[in-house]
Amino acid sequence: MSDDVLTVTMNPAVDHTVTVEEPLRTGAVARTDDAKFDAGGKGINVSKYLTALDVDAPATGFLGGPFGRMIRDRLDADGVPNDFVGIGDRTRLNTTVLGPEGEYKINHNGPTVDEGEVSDLVDRVRERDPDRLVVAGSLPKGVTTDAVDELAAAGDWETAVDTGGTSLTELDAAYLVCKPNREELAVATEMPVETTADCAAAAQSLRARGFRFVVASLGPDGALLAAESGTYHAPAVSVDVVDTVGAGDALLSGFLAALARGEDERTALKTGIIVASRVVGASGTSVPDFDAVFDERGDVTVSVVSP
Ligand SMILES: O=P(O)(O)OC[C@@]1(O)O[C@H](CO)[C@@H](O)[C@@H]1O
């Protein structure tokens, strides 16, 4: 067995997205008919988006309890291949509230995972022997960044990682790419991240710590790519934003989809920008229409940034 891309989500979540018409008020009940449930967690989102982009990208990680069953059922129904390790504890539910004041996101810390479950996951990844591995999302209790390094070093695959700012400073293995947002870039480098040039310098300094590429998501300011050949910026595409949940996962998915097609890193950055622009136009972490995404990349202008 050999997958093109295998994603690992050690702390998946059912993503519960509710929309309310009125601002939330303490002591008042907010009622709504608009609620949805998606199979979520960063690696799972990457599998969903890559599958829709025609890349073979099964999802693995840990699932347990009723929300774990819900995620598996949902992925099966949506045709996203998956092969999770069952755990004794319960998978979490994360909530996004979309209201007139903006977006609130509440993430549960998630279950506790034991050592035996971690070694089952490493075995599962070895069995599947992917070309590329994506380890994304927070780590559940009981799991440290040593497990991320172990997964990255357990075979000859290239590994993409998106496990949070602090974790990026603790990783020792060699990685293909990491995808911090602006805040995570600041946490990982302790450098200023006010301007695009600041972010470029921070991304290059992070890259020097063992990442071939750093793809930094800058929200409305687009994204940066730090590579050996230089640092590149692509602006965000102007779209009506419904919510930003999953935008970073979409950026990484587009980047990896282009690499899977044998395209260069600048084209991969453009692809990430277009895929992310589609995802922010849909609510929750549902898969939007990706029709013609590869054709639209010509509309994205990439510029060189001098840190
Ligand atoms: O708590 P974590 O693991 O950092 O993030 C989990 C999460 O917020 O990330 C995804 C969006 O990127 C959602 O599907 C999910 O709820």
TrEMBL record:
GO terms, molecular function: ATP binding; phosphofructokinase activity
Annotated coiled-coil segments of the chain: none
Domain Carbohydrate kinase PfkB, chain residue ranges per copy: 10-287
Sorted UniProt keywords: ATP-binding, Kinase, Nucleotide-binding, Transferase
CDD domains (UniProt xref): FruK_PfkB_like (cd01164)
SUPFAM superfamilies named among the record's database cross-references: Ribokinase-like
Gene3D superfamilies per UniProt: 3.40.1190.20
Pfam families, alphabetized: PfkB (PF00294)
A cellular-component GO term for this protein: cytosol
Domain of life: Archaea
Record NCBIfam families: 1-PFK, pfkB_Halo
Family: Belongs to the carbohydrate kinase PfkB family.
PANTHER family, alphabetized: 1-PHOSPHOFRUCTOKINASE-RELATED, ATP-DEPENDENT 6-PHOSPHOFRUCTOKINASE ISOZYME 2
UniProt-recorded name of the protein: 1-phosphofructokinase
Naturally occurring in which organism (per UniProt): Halogeometricum pallidum JCM 14848
